[in-house]
Specification:
Length: 271
C-alpha cells in the first residue's frame, strides 16, 4: 500500500488517464451518463448515490480513481423500480437502459446505462448481451439480512456455471433466461418477504448481486453532495464510514504496479 501523500494528482493522471487517452475518453462518456442520470433523478425526486469505487474516487480524488474504468451508483429498490420506468423516455437517443426487460439475454439483477456510440469487450458474459457500449452500473439496494442475501447467490450463480461449461450458446442462454425469470418472480420475492417481516435497518445490494456488505440506513440517507470531476453528485450521508466498511483504510493507494483494467477492447464511433 502506498500513502496518497506520496503522489500528487497530476502524477497519477499523467500515468493512468491523461487527457485524450482511451481510458480518459471512456471516463468522460461515463461522466456524461451519470450527469444525465442525475438530471433525471432530480426531476423525479429519486435519491441515488455514488457507490463502491466511484464513491472512493469522489472522496479520495474528487473524481474517478485515475485507473478506474467503471462507474457505480446505488438506489433504494423502491426508487429503483420507479427509475427503470422513467429512464427510457427521459434518456437521450445515444444512451439506453439495459435491464432484464430490455435485453432478453441480460441476466444480471442490476441495471446498466449504455452508450450506443461505443463498444467494449470485457472478455466475459457480456458477449451474450444486446447492448455492448460503455456503461455505468445502477445497483438496487434493499433491506435484508446477510444470511438471506447469501441464499440468493447460488440461485443466481448457477447461471454463470451454465455459461462457463456449456458449448451450446443458445441452449445455455435458454436455461439462463428460465433461471433468471424464476429468481425475479419467485425466489427473490420470497426472500424479500422474509426480510420485510424481520427487524432491523440494515441494507445491502439486492439479491443476486454477490456483494454482502451491510449498511445502516442512517449512514446512507439523507445524501449530501460531493465534487466529482467538477460536478456535484450525491454521496452517502456518512461516506467516511461507508468507505471504511467497503475498503478499510481507503485513503491508502494500492500497489500501482499491479493495477489492471476490466475492459479488454474499446471502440468509439462517430455520432
Amino acid at each position: 500500500m502506498v500513502s496518497t501523500k506520496d503522489f500528487n494528482p497530476e502524477e497519477l493522471k499523467a500515468r493512468f488517464n491523461p487527457d485524450g487517452s482511451l481510458l480518459r475518453r471512456e471516463q468522460m462518456i461515463m461522466l456524461e451518463m451519470v450527469t444525465e442520470l442525475d438530471r433525471i433523478c432530480k426531476k423525479y425526486n429519486i435519491q441515488y448515490f455514488l457507490y463502491w469505487g466511484t464513491l472512493l474516487g469522489a472522496i479520495r480524488h474528487n473524481g474517478f480513481i485515475p485507473w478506474d474504468d467503471d462507474l457505480d451508483v446505488a438506489v433504494m429498490r423502491r426508487d429503483y423500480k420507479k427509475l427503470l420506468k422513467v429512464l427510457p423516455r427521459e434518456l437521450p437517443n445515444h444512451i439506453v437502459l439495459q435491464s432484464n426487460d430490455t435485453d432478453k439475454n441480460y441476466f444480471y439483477h442490476f441495471a446498466k446505462l449504455r452508450n450506443t456510440r461505443s463498444y467494449i469487450d470485457e472478455g466475459n458474459y457480456d458477449r451474450y448481451f444486446k447492448e455492448r457500449g460503455i456503461f455505468i452500473d445502477i445497483f438496487p439496494i434493499d433491506k435484508t439480512r446477510c444470511w438471506l442475501h447469501m441464499l440468493s447467490e447460488p440461485l443466481h450463480g448457477h447461471c454463470f456455471k451454465i455459461l462457463r461449461t456449456s458449448k451450446d450458446n443458445e441452449a445455455s442462454m435458454r436455461k439462463v433466461r428460465v433461471i433468471t425469470w424464476i429468481n425475479r418472480h419467485v425466489s427473490f420475492p420470497v426472500l424479500r418477504f422474509i426480510a420485510k417481516v424481520s427487524f432491523g435497518k440494515s441494507v445491502m445490494c439486492d439479491y443476486g448481486i454477490p456483494l454482502h456488505i451491510a449498511h445502516d440506513m442512517d449512514d446512507l440517507f439523507p445524501t449530501v453532495t460531493h465534487l466529482f470531476e467538477g460536478v456535484d453528485l450525491p454521496v452517502p450521508a456518512n461516506s467516511h464510514l461507508i468507505l471504511q466498511q467497503l475498503y478499510g483504510d481507503y485513503m491508502q493507494l494500492p500497489d500501482l504496479s499491479s493495477i489492471t483494467g476490466h475492459v479488454q477492447k474499446i471502440e468509439f464511433y462517430d455520432e
